[in-house]
């Protein structure tokens, strides 16, 4: 198909439940637990008071709309972790197969028909068959949330865009350990998404075009 027959192209698209998937990245016991809370009080407060309540609302809204909810977690596929990426080995990221650390946090636990993909790399597209699954389910828009903003979430958004999906980042449903994420990460995400006016509400905006927004904020 010729270029002039493909467009027009826009990131401002209406919410289509049948073609939209909510992806929770690494919202698991390994990333947030009592030990992490003691070492990273800012992160702990943000997770408890902002991220998890908003994720719960977002999951409920997607399920009510009949949209897919999918999870990915850091988890070895082998007992000794030999399948991990070189970066994970160098970084000493080891989450045992079937371990407590690999489980999704209870407050946002998967439903009995939700897909949970174990991954052994920062980007879920690099170590799972998520692209194959999304294509099979007719998904075009991927709404990305979770941990950590400047690592696995950032990788996922960039990879989704490169593979022909429309990524959306929910700003109040993701977090990094420290108050200010790397500037390069924030700028890179904004380049891939509509510009942020920080006034939206994901539940209110269902069925409307997401205009001028890089992150759809959830407000109580």
Textual characterization of the structure:
By secondary structure, the chain is of the alpha/beta class. The protein has one domain: Isochorismatase-like (Rossmann fold, 3-Layer(aba) Sandwich), CATH 3.40.50.850. 34% of the residues lie in helices and 16% in strands. The longest helix has 25 residues, at 41-65. It starts with a helix and ends in a 28-residue tail after the last helix. Residues 184-189 and 194-220 have low confidence and may be disordered.
Q: How much of the residues is beta strand, in percent?
A: 15-25%
Q: Give the tally of structural domains.
A: 1
DSSP strand count: 5
- As residue ranges, the low-confidence spans are 184-189, 194-220
What is the CATH-assigned architecture? 3-Layer(aba) Sandwich
Tell me the structural class.
alpha/beta
Question: What is the strand arrangement across the widest sheet?
Answer: 3-2-1-4-5
Helix content: 25-40%
Features:
220 residues, alpha/beta, five-stranded parallel β-sheet, 34% helix, Rossmann fold, globular, 5 strands, disordered C terminus
Summarize the structure.
The protein is an alpha/beta fold and 220 residues long. The protein has a single domain, classed as Isochorismatase-like (Rossmann fold), CATH 3.40.50.850.
């Amino acid at each position: 198909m010729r270029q002039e027959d493909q467009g027009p192209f826009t990131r401002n698209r209406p919410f289509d439940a049948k073609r939209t998937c909510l992806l929770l990245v690494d919202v698991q016991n390994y990333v947030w637990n009592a030990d992490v809370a003691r070492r990273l009080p800012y992160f702990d407060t943000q997770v408890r008071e902002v991220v998890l309540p908003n994720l719960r609302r977002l999951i409920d809204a997607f399920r009510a709309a009949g949209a897919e909810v999918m999870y990915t977690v850091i988890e070895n596929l082998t007992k000794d972790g030999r399948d991990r990426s070189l970066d994970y080995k160098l970084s000493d990221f080891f989450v045992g197969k079937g371990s407590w650390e690999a489980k999704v946090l209870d407050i946002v636990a998967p439903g009995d028909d939700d897909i949970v993909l174990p991954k052994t790399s920062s980007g879920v597209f690099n170590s799972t068959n998520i692209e194959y699954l999304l294509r099979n389910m007719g998904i075009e828009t991927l709404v990305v949330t979770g941990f950590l903003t400047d690592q696995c979430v950032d990788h996922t958004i960039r990879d989704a865009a490169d593979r022909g999906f429309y990524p959306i980042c929910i700003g109040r449903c993701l977090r990094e350990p420290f108050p200010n994420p790397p500037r390069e990460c924030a700028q890179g995400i904004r380049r891939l998404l509509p510009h942020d006016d920080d006034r939206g509400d994901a539940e209110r905006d269902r069925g409307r075009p997401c205009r001028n927004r890089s992150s759809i904020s959830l407000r109580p």
